[in-house]
Backbone:
């Protein structure tokens, strides 16, 4: 997609425009909704659909920076632990008498710090992959959360705090508005700024970008720090909706988030994908879950479905690429034979 | 070039050379420190307890080392273990007269299937190992819950012959330890003295040149994940037999301990290097830590963070040591 934007001479083709992955997603999204409507008479109802968004949008905040991370060609599996750690610290501080406003600020700071630490480790020790660094910090962050709260839960938040997860503004859930604002901000950052262009450049070729004057290290640290910050935002909304928190909160969120990003058409090899795809994928998986929940599909079956969807979303483009690569080789061979 | 210049000169290169000795030193120092705090640590009873507890971890670590050597990672082993354990426990509950060896075979076969599916995705589908195994982890975990219907298989549903797999002994050695020793011997031979074993290292250290020299990379990758699956399946049976209960969330998060053992044992995450001897020491060190922390009154809630810190530290030390080795190689070639 990005290459197409660069080659502005190429004429605009309607067919190619509609053959994009994002339209595919819209189609699947409509299909999922159609199936849901036909399966359950309670599905198509404005109020319940609107309220369903409140249940799955909390983790969607992490999807946004995860798109940036995966376009960089990296991955961050520590985000769920960051959510747990910042939520636990906030709840614990509040329980010890710190005013809620200050606790919220500290929650955001803790998340930011966690993200920064990931980025710093990656940049400082370049021989380490992001998989192993974030795997280690994933255990550490969750472990610190257990050290603080052990097996207790902490709650009893003031009235205004529950507004984050449960409140409405003009009849629209506050979390939906907040997500829309963040999604637009991240979309603009990725597609309209030089910062975003540089992220694509690093994802396509980190060495070449460094030689062309892109500050690869700085951008990596900023992107990972953003992921930490958004994980803390998720912690706020999640804690507000649940009313209390435990060290094992948000377990397995990293899978959901990565599934949404990959399904949104962001290549795991880096350098490809768009924000809008991931946003559509958030709603696709969210409504799929909600619909299947309505017809009493157990949570464990959902686990299987989402795991398989994640793999299918990665495999389909890979197979297509393999086939087109093979076709190219054949074409070249034919060309060489002709030349001889 | 004089003979002296050929010798490694930087300290980190020396560490790399004597990594196993260093690990052994850490193990001894740790044991003495714990023994001073709690004299019941170095008793025959506790040590045999420690060894049986570490056996399953060390078996899984062998498979994980193969996967990491090929630059991959497998997060699905905990789920594979649970699935194989659950199905074999249910089978043994339904047919109590089944010979234990047949149950072990059944569990291993389930593991082989799980591993082969993952290996197919990684080798033929070109899916990143972390994403493929994350997806399959959830699929297998969900399958385990579906197979069990959310119920446990508890001790009284299992015949004594099945529970004896873990409690029995061969020539005075606990069966679990005996199986672990057997597997270590087999894999020591396989990795160091067979063609396929060497090919695994070749694929890990440089996939392109391995492919050019005629190694079928896809086949090796597939094989490695299948071996990992087989070992997790085997461990599923051993685990259920040892703890005499099979649950949907058996061994949840255990893959992290296994990866920690590998990293402690000096298996490089970048692929291509890792030795069976180092791995064994890494697994034992982790086993001692898990055993000793409760003995010296460390809260169980601290264990996770301590384990994470150890993984991070080991990975960072590996990275620094590798840097030193590379610098030393350059110095040797006078660049």
Residues:
């Amino acid at each position: 997609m990005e290459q197409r934007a660069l080659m502005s001479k190429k004429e605009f083709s309607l067919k190619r425009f509609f053959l994009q992955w994002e339209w595919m997603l819209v189609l699947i999204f409509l299909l999922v909704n159609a199936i849901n409507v036909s399966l359950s008479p309670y599905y198509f109802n404005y109020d319940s659909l609107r309220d369903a968004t409140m249940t799955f949008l909390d983790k969607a905040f992490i999807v946004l920076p995860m798109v940036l991370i995966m376009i960089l060609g990296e991955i961050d599996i520590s985000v769920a632990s960051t959510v747990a750690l910042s939520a636990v610290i906030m709840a614990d501080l509040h329980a010890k008498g710190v005013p809620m406003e200050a606790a919220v600020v500290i929650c955001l700071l803790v998340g930011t710090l966690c993200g920064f630490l990931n980025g710093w480790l990656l940049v400082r020790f370049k021989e380490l992959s992001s998989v192993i660094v974030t795997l280690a910090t994933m255990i550490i962050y969750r472990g610190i959360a257990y050290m603080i709260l052990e097996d207790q839960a902490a709650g009893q938040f003031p009235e205004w705090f529950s507004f984050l997860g449960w409140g409405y503004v003009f009849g629209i859930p506050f979390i939906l508005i907040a997500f829309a604002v963040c999604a637009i901000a991240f979309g603009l950052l990725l597609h309209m700024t030089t910062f975003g262009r540089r992220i694509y450049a690093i994802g396509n070729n980190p060495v070449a970008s460094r030689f062309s004057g892109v500050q690869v290290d700085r951008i990596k640290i900023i992107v990972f720090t953003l992921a930490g910050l958004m994980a803390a935002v998720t912690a706020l909304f999640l804690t507000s909706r649940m009313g209390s928190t435990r060290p094992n909160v948000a377990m397995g969120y990293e899978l959901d988030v990565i599934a949404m990003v990959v399904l949104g058409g962001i290549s795991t090899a880096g350098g490809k994908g768009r924000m809008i795809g991931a946003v559509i994928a958030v709603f696709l998986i969210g409504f799929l879950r909600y619909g299947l929940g309505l017809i009493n599909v157990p949570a464990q079956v959902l686990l299987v479905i989402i795991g398989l969807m994640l793999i299918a979303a990665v495999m389909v483009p890979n197979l297509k690429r393999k086939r087109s690569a093979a076709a190219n080789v054949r074409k070249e061979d034919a060309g060489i034979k002709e030349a001889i | 070039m004089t003979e002296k210049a050929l010798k490694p000169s930087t300290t980190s290169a020396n560490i790399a050379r004597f990594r196993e000795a260093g690990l052994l030193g850490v193990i001894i120092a740790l044991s003495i420190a714990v023994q001073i705090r709690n004299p019941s640590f170095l008793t025959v009873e506790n040590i045999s307890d420690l060894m049986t507890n570490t056996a399953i971890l060390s078996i899984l670590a062998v498979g994980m080392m193969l996967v990491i050597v090929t630059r991959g990672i497998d997060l699905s082993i905990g789920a594979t273990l649970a699935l194989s354990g659950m199905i074999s426990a249910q089978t043994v509950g339904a047919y109590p007269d089944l010979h234990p060896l047949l149950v072990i075979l059944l569990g291993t076969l389930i593991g082989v299937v799980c591993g082969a599916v993952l290996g197919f995705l990684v080798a033929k589908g070109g899916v990143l190992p972390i994403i493929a195994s994350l997806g399959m982890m959830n699929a297998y975990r969900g399958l385990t819950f579906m197979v069990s219907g959310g119920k446990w298989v508890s001790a009284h549903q299992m015949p004594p012959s099945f529970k004896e797999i873990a409690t029995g002994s061969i020539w005075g050695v606990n069966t679990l330890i005996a199986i672990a020793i057997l597997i270590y011997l087999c894999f020591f031979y396989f990795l160091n003295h067979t063609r396929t074993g060497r090919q695994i290292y070749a694929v890990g250290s440089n996939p392109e040149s391995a492919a050019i020299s005629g190694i079928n990379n896809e086949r090796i990758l597939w094989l490695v994940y299948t071996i990992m699956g087989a070992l997790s399946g085997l461990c599923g049976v051993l685990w259920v037999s040892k703890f005499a209960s099979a649950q949907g969330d058996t061994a949840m998060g255990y893959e992290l301990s296994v990866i920690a053992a590998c990293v402690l044992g000096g298996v490089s995450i970048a692929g291509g290097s890792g030795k069976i001897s180092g791995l064994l020491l890494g697994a034992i060190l982790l086993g001692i830590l898990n055993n000793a922390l409760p003995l010296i009154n460390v809260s169980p809630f601290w264990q996770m963070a301590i384990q994470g810190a150890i993984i991070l530290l080991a990975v960072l030390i590996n990275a620094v040591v590798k840097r030193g080795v590379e610098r030393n190689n350059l110095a040797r070639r006078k660049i």
